[in-house]
Amino acid sequence: MNKSIKKFLDAWRSPLSRNEALWGLLFLSPWIIGFLIFTLAPMIATLGFTFTNVTLTQEEPLRFVGLDNYLTLFKDAQVWQSLLVTLKFGAISLPVGLILPFALALILNNKYVRGKSFFRTMFYMPFVIPFVAGVFAWGGMMNYENGWFNEILRMLGVQNPPYWTNDINWIYPSLVIMGLWGVGNAMLINLAGLQGIPTELYDAAQVDGAGWWATLFNVTIPMISPVIFYSLTLGVVGVFQYFMVPLVLNNGTGAPGGQTMFFNLYLYKTFFTFQNMSYGATMAWFLFLVVLVVTVVLFRTSKYWVYYAGEGRQ
Amino acid sequence: MSNLFSRRNFRETGRSFFGTFGTLIILLAFLSPMLRVVTTALKTPEQVMATGSPVWPAKPAVLNYEGKDYDIYTVPTESGNRDLALYKKGREESIFLNPANPSEQIVWKGAWRTLQRSWQFSPAWDNFGEVWRLIDFPRLLYNTIAIAIISTTGTLASCILVAYGFARFRIPGKGFLFTLLISTIFLPGSVTLIPTYTVFAKIGWVGTWLPLLVPTFFANAYDVFLLRQYFLTIPREMDEAAMIDGAGPLRILFSIILPQSWPVVISVAIFHIVYAWNDYFGPLIYLSTKPELQPIAVGLSRFNGIHYTNPSLIQAATLMTMAIPLVIFLFCQRFFMQGVVVTGVEK
């Protein structure tokens, strides 16, 4: 700490580097000001709200309530239910979100697939479609009466095809399917990772007599573990914040049977429908702390399983 | 020897064929909802509701003969299925007309009620006109484009400056600031939402575009990162040469850095335009009481809330929402792909 302060003061004393630092700060200022106004100040205000009874209409007099909101939160069955919903969805969407783009990248990187740039463009293309349009496009596919999924299932002889988004057993797979068109970004990142693996490693594996699966698990996956780590971290953060598709799909009612009342959706309703600022703020800070802990844990564990080729041995 | 070579060659070709063909099948399944959007958008509401109607847009075929319409059915005959017009209905046998030669009468033994209607290709183009009018498409398009252009301008202007600051200047605490910037990617939006919304409501910005536009002028982590990575690849010697010639920092940015960075600048611009097209939550909460100011994603969801009983109109509106980003993508796909790879791999 002392060292960095000393460095800071040294830099400040020399007019030339002070000039450079001032110019630099001037260029950074849009972000620094924006961070203070649109991120830091609202975060602190949100934290402040959690210790009060503030609402949008404020019918009761404003007062300090200590940890009451947090106690309510821990006793609120809906909070735990919505966290459970979020985790159940994540248990399906996270593996799909990691494996599917990786599998597509493997296919596009295979020497037996011709027309790679065509396929790459086509698999990426739906990424630019607004997700609201994606919900209606895939929603049509999953229509019970005339959706293509059920048409095909009936053709194959299935008597009672699922109701998909209206079926509590099929709702999470349905939501995952509705997000499939967003796979393009992760696919390209995986593909770039695969293309960055030196071919000598594959030659060496072949000399050692490794088969396809052995090569996959001992060369390919370790070599693109930074990409997996990046996707996993963003995926986990995304799952905790997931709620927009259910909001569009059934107007945030939580249908079917409360199975889409995600944590963030409950938060959204607490604030916008029930106008309870302090309780919404408490949920928001709770979510922030959960995401923070999960992210920190992921980063801590990353040194055991993420391999950065550029860094070498330490 | 040559025999071995050609057999091996043959096997390789076969594998390439199956590899490519298999990938094509996966691609078709992946894009099949688009096909369903298009076909449903071109169907009449009657066809959508009718059981046994074809996948492609069609209407029940009829024959106009001597001023009267006769329904055409698919009739199984000795010479295979034939499309014939039902002329005289009977319980055990009916008289049909051959549409190609209406004066020819054909007697068919069997219950006509068991027959399937014959369909004739007929796209309902009117659906698009109806959606255009009902959803006020020109208004939505104008709003979306205006928001996209202004917010892209704000993003480019601010992110270029900030990325230049991070890429080229020695600033005490820069490492910490950069980590802080990147960590905002992981920050849940809801932790800042409530006070931000409340303040915007207090100063009268709710119900205007300002909450969507103003923050874009204060830079964001993704685009700063993308631009900074690119600026770092430009050799410093060029800046230094310009500096010796007496160029100031702004001059260096505009005459050395930016002219060499246009691919990444275009990437950021296109990304942001598509982002603005896709944006739903911000416009939803800030413009919920002002339908006349809403962009297309919110308009589509509102349209679904009103017309959900008419799938062909919903799918026509969906197609109209998808079309423009897809066209932009197909023209500029190179810039998309480059940008993604930079943000993903180099982190």
Q: Please, could you describe this protein's structure?
A:
- The complex is a heterodimer of chains A (314) and B (347).
- By secondary structure, chain A is mainly alpha-helical.
- Chain A folds into two domains: 1-34, no CATH class; 66-132 and 172-311, MetI-like fold (Orthogonal Bundle).
- Chain A is built from 15 helices and no strands.
- Chain A has helices spanning 2-13, 15-49, 68-75, 77-108, 116-124, 131-141, 148-155, 171-178, 184-195, 199-207, 212-223, 225-240, 244-250, 263-272, 277-305.
- In chain A, helix 12 runs antiparallel to helix 15.
- The longest helix of chain A is centred in the N-terminal third of the chain and has 35 residues, at 15-49.
- The two termini of chain A are 24 Å apart.
- Chain B has 347 residues and is of the alpha+beta class.
- Chain B folds into three domains: 1-41; 62-117; 135-345, MetI-like (MetI-like fold), CATH 1.10.3720.10.
- Helices cover 62% and strands 13% of the residues of chain B.
- In chain B, the strands form two sheets. In chain B, strands 2, 3, 4, 5, 6 and 7 form a six-stranded antiparallel beta sheet that branches. Chain B has a two-stranded antiparallel sheet with strand order 1-8.
- Chain B starts with a helix and ends with a helix.
- The mean pLDDT of chain B is 88.
List keywords for this structure.
heterodimer, A: 314 residues, mainly alpha, 2 domains, B: 347 residues, alpha+beta, MetI-like fold, 3 domains, two-stranded antiparallel sheet, 14 helices, 8 strands, elongated
The CATH superfamily name of the largest domain in chain B is: MetI-like
Q: Which structural class do the helices and strands of chain A define?
A: mainly alpha
Q: Please, how many domains of chain B?
A: 3
Main β sheet profile of chain A: none
The largest contact between protein chains, plus residue counts on each side, is:
A-B, 94 and 88 residues
Strand content of chain B: 5-15%
Order of helices and strands of chain B, N to C?
A: HHEEEEEEEEHHHHHHHHHHHH
Q: Return the CATH architecture of the largest domain in chain A.
A: Orthogonal Bundle
Helical segment count of chain A: 15
Q: What is the strand tally of chain B?
A: 8
Q: In one word, what is the shape of chain B?
A: elongated
Order of H and E elements of chain A: HHHHHHHHHHHHHHH
Low-confidence stretches of chain A: none
Largest sheet of chain B: 6 strands, antiparallel
Query: Which CATH architecture of the largest domain in chain B is right?
Result: Orthogonal Bundle
- The mean pLDDT of chain A is 89
Helix content of chain A: 55-70%
Fraction of residues in helix of chain B: 55-70%
- In CATH, the topology of the largest domain in chain B is named MetI-like fold
| Count of separate structural domains of chain A | 2
Mean pLDDT across all residues of chain B, rounded? 88
